[in-house]
User: Fold these one by one.
Assistant:
Number 1:
Amino acid sequence: MEDKKYTIANLAEEFQITARTLRFYEDKGLLKPERIGQNRCYSEADRVRLSWILRGKRVGFSLAEVGEMISLYDVGDGRKTQRVVTLEKCQERIKVLKSQRDDIDLTIRELEEFCIQLEALEAEEKVS
Amino acid sequence: MEDKKYTIANLAEEFQITARTLRFYEDKGLLKPERIGQNRCYSEADRVRLSWILRGKRVGFSLAEVGEMISLYDVGDGRKTQRVVTLEKCQERIKVLKSQRDDIDLTIRELEEFCIQLEALEAEEKVS
DNA sequence: ATTCTAGTTGACGTTAACGTAAACGTTAAC
DNA sequence: GTTAACGTTTACGTTAACGTCAACTAGAAT
């Protein structure tokens, strides 16, 4: 079974962040690693959560929002009404993400269009 | 010709932001509206820039990054070497945006997958 | 025994992106 | 003439997401 453990430096190194950042995420309740004595000991599950957090950040969500998204998973086994709420939140998130993707696509298209114009200018210069 | 002019309140209203925000963007050099006397007077071009800024923000870029992206356009008419630099920056931005879109797609897929599981639980409950 | 190498917990500093309040100048309406 | 609506600048306040010490502690190595 995959019960690999990680030290704080391990994860910091792997994900190119600082130990301070990991402790900060813990303060914010985003991570809850075991303690071996005083030291933090991260499980594979913690590692997965971390990658979720960072991915969320990369796409522009705040830590609070990422926290919400992550907590969706944890609540999935609760009472029925609880699950329904989770499902709705989840679908809302998906909507936001999709409209965000549209924004990105639009931006990409505009930038690419602009690139083409720039390249045309270069070509023109070569002719003259 | 489209030379419509906008007051600060017009744009604030249209884009659902505050006047403070518009002045802030101006301080940061992102917008440079005309002045009629002391008052700001935004052109259609300013409006387009603003929508760029806000779209950039929605997809997670900082104002500084958005500023860079916008300035790409302004530099497009400079010297040749200048244009080449612009082109490169532009292509870099496109790369970033594409990898961001991949992140979003992945997140969407995972959330959708999770939704399906939740819905399966609901269905199960109805049977029992 | 001491030095080195992780790790720990405060606590204050910093940057970005505005919010908010104060104090003031036009113009239009009543 | 004054009140209201809309604008202005100046300046301090705020929140998020860490950075940066400082002052330990615990174990391993020399």
Note: The mean pLDDT of chain A is 89.
Number 2:
Amino acid sequence: MVSTLKPQLGANPERARSHNKQLVLRAIRHVGAVGRAEIARASGLSTQAVSNIISDLLGEGLLIEQGVRSAGRGLPVQQYAIKPDGGYAFGVEVRPTAVFTALVDLVGTPVLTRRIPLHSAAKSTILETVKAQLHCALTEAKISKGALMGAGIVMPGPFGDTGLTGTASELPGWNIGDPAEIFANTLHLPVFVENDANAAAMAERMNGVARGLDDFAYLYFGQGLGLGLVQNAQILQGAFGNAGEIGHIQVFVDGHAVELESATSRLSVQACLAREGLEVTNMEDLISLYSSANRHLLLWLDKAAQALSSALSIIENLFDPQTVILGGAMPDVILDHIIARTALPERSVSNRPDRAHPRLMRGTSGRMTATLGAAALVLHQAFTPTIAEAR
Amino acid sequence: MVSTLKPQLGANPERARSHNKQLVLRAIRHVGAVGRAEIARASGLSTQAVSNIISDLLGEGLLIEQGVRSAGRGLPVQQYAIKPDGGYAFGVEVRPTAVFTALVDLVGTPVLTRRIPLHSAAKSTILETVKAQLHCALTEAKISKGALMGAGIVMPGPFGDTGLTGTASELPGWNIGDPAEIFANTLHLPVFVENDANAAAMAERMNGVARGLDDFAYLYFGQGLGLGLVQNAQILQGAFGNAGEIGHIQVFVDGHAVELESATSRLSVQACLAREGLEVTNMEDLISLYSSANRHLLLWLDKAAQALSSALSIIENLFDPQTVILGGAMPDVILDHIIARTALPERSVSNRPDRAHPRLMRGTSGRMTATLGAAALVLHQAFTPTIAEAR
DNA sequence: GCGTTAACTCAACTTTCTTGAGTGTTCAAG
DNA sequence: CTTGAACACTCAAGAAAGTTGAGTTAACGC
């Protein structure tokens, strides 16, 4: 029996150190400013070990001293915080008609964002554009390539040849080869590839309403509707990287079964309004229709909320998340309206009296959500201990 | 801001060793018999380190030498394998009317199984019964308590106070306090608590059709219908331990929306046949009805397959598993029939041409599946590297 | 036969963590 | 106001575990 062993990392002093460094960074990021003793208690390491690690991190420019706090008796705590310019992450969102890029610093603050129209969706064009934009961004922000920790790429899923291939949002030519590897070879950087929903979820976890949450679901309004799943502080990818393809499951609207995406997505609202002779091309159009209480839009919103209620029941019962977040390329007012109208299923494991978070929340909205999420993938990696990471 | 830091383990030499030991055990279990060099390559450790660890494990009685294999040139490999009597795991399944127990060895072979009727479903009765049965099993199998690695407990979910509370299968009195802690204090052993579906999934992974799979879903026919989810070699538990409550989601049968569990479960088939005046109390009744091609049973099977097809679409698109396994307390013939009749959704990320496993497979069936799964929880723990385990 | 290949061992070395003693600061009780 | 307990942190010695590189043994193939 020649069964291949899945490579998994054993622990040696070097990797242990790297693991502990990320653990310390993560702890500091989590609370903003902490002392060494507290980190030691939380990590199960000795204060001495934490002290040594912090002195390392200070040397690497990833931390700054953040004043002393006198907490009751004893010597006041020397606190530390993440140094914002200690590192940068590049985020890229690839769409058929344009490439969006963002450069964010170590705490997740965007330094620069760009939208570059594509004259062709060819693979080579995309690779060249991304590469050019990366150098452009570094030059403009006066950041050395050494300070760049990696690039996150958002691409429309599903990846590989599946039963959903043929969907509108797809890019040609990416079915063969591993996109992460292709980008890594082009950019000479660590690269992380995810779909828009997963990336948006990470963005929300880094600097949004999901901050500090380790188990949540994120419904992302893009072209269609995607589901980003964070379980145990990690993105749930599935065996082939296509988990969260929620758009094509059947839900109920007015007693009929429809594909979720056909009731709840940007394409859906555009199509619905187009049938009424209303052309909607951007978010502003939607906002103005909404503020004028357009009947057709309100009708669509009701159906979307119904569909969402079905989806919510499925998500809650299958994942038992801390909360479900709604976000993406839709105006705030629209998302808020949908959330207010979505019936929270009673027969759900999430219908518990001792909840700490609402069952449905609005996340960051707007066109850049996924792009910032792409950058967040890199930051997440930097703050996640690596030993025993199976992939 | 007083934000509590989530305890997560830092790496020190001791924990690193324990991590590496489990890594080595896992590798050996995975392929059955391996040499040191191969493990070293797979784990990223030096052969020397692996050698030292193996000599430790031999001393602890967890491994045995397993002959030499000459693999081409070079010195023949000294192979090692898990020593079956190197340790034991106790599995318990608690139901309202009876407690099932199993004692399995380190490779998962059952040494002894029992069914103990309960005269009361009171918490104290259950605890006492389990404790007595544990000692009973150890005595009978002539195994010292020191060789016992832990106990796995299967209890009907959902845990805690949820919107599904009030379901038939529940046990009274367990909503307060952590069941795992309660059992651990009673049995003085490491304890792992899961629902039936998750446990059954682990059983299948240890010694069944899911052997070697790291991402799969397991649909478990119990009283109702449960979903066990294994993602990245770990059970997906959800934020509150209630992930996989698939029984209450809405699916389509003959164009109508019904709760999945009402179309596909033991209670469902019993109720359906009872309406026709047929009383079914055990699996043998079902088998004989099936072999006589009972019209009502066949009708029910068709509806069950329809419902399952909807569920399959949801599971595949949300989790993107390697395969979906059907198993539990139903006869093989029934499961096989359902599998044969279940339409595999076309619009699914799992509908890919390059599949290595069927989309729907039959797992171990029979009443003991979940009980053996309970024991498998302990074994899984023993073979899973621990550093950075977040829970 | 003899050189090549490969698994494994031995002994010295390196990294990292831990331990325990010691220092400095703050608060509270006498 | 003094004294002692509490607490964060540092220093130096020691321990645990992995790595490295040289050496040994055995099988294969020309």
Note: The first helix of chain A runs from residue 13 to 31.
